[in-house]
Write a structure and sequence with these properties.
single chain; alpha+beta; four-stranded mixed beta sheet; 4 helices
């Protein structure tokens, strides 16, 4: 019987679909793009993608370790945090703001 201390956590590698989505984002939104890995609890982690053009995207993965592996595996995707440079690079247009507001934010 293994003791808890002897068990090792194995990082789940990003899937081909997750890698393809991140690579497609970089190709569409410019180099270099940034990837911010955020823990979202039991659901895993969210890799928020910020394109060189300021666009936002995301890829949901099973863990923060998988998210970090995804950022590492995608060429021209740089690891980032929500610092002033990353926040300042984001350009949110009116359409995105409207979608984020949801039904309560809509004006009729």
């Amino acid at each position: 019987m293994l003791h808890v201390a002897e068990q090792t956590e194995k990082t789940q590698e990003p899937t081909a679909k997750q890698l393809a989505a991140a690579r497609r984002f970089v190709a569409e939104h410019g180099k270099p793009s940034k990837g911010v890995v955020e823990n979202i609890g039991r659901a895993g982690a969210r890799v928020v993608l910020v394109g060189a053009d300021g666009a936002l995207g995301d890829v949901v993965v099973p863990s923060t370790a998988t998210g970090e592996a995804l950022v590492e595996a995608v060429e021209d995707l740089e690891p980032a945090e929500w610092d002033a440079a990353t926040v300042g690079a984001v350009k949110i247009g009116p359409g995105h703001r409207h979608r984020m507001a949801g039904p309560a934010g809509r004006r009729y």
